[in-house]
Structure to design on (131 residues):
């Protein structure tokens, strides 16, 4: 039997979704704005992939997008693949991290995408419940 423990992906997704709702509440963001940001990010993730989702959030969604990106990066770090986190929060650093770490291995990329989708779904429901 292996000593390696796999993270509970559903719990990880739920924790980071809760953090999105908590962090946007602290900034007094309207629930509808958070719902809108998360819904659009989910659509981009499902239709265009992980890299496009980060690009969209960083380029178009301002403060709420920055919160979502931070939690998405924390979730990816929590997967236990040893990816770490980008050294900074700039567009270039985050996108370089995604392309050099996350998208390299197809199986891990697909698992990451699925877990990020679950997180965004939970965050969407959380925003609706808050509103």
């Amino acid at each position: 039997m292996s000593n390696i423990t796999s993270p509970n992906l559903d719990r990880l997704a739920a924790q980071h979704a809760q953090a999105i709702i908590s962090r946007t509440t602290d900034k007094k963001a309207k629930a509808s704005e958070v719902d809108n940001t998360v819904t659009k990010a989910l659509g981009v993730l499902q239709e265009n992939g992980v890299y496009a989702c980060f690009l969209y959030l960083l380029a178009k969604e301002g403060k709420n997008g920055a919160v979502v990106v931070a939690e998405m990066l924390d979730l990816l770090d929590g997967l236990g693949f040893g990816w770490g986190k980008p050294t900074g929060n700039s567009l270039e650093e985050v996108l370089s991290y995604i392309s050099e770490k996350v998208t390299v291995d197809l199986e891990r990329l697909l698992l990451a995408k699925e877990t990020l989708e679950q997180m965004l779904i939970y965050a969407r429901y959380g925003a609706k419940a808050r509103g």
The CA atoms of residues 17 and 121 lie 8 Å apart.
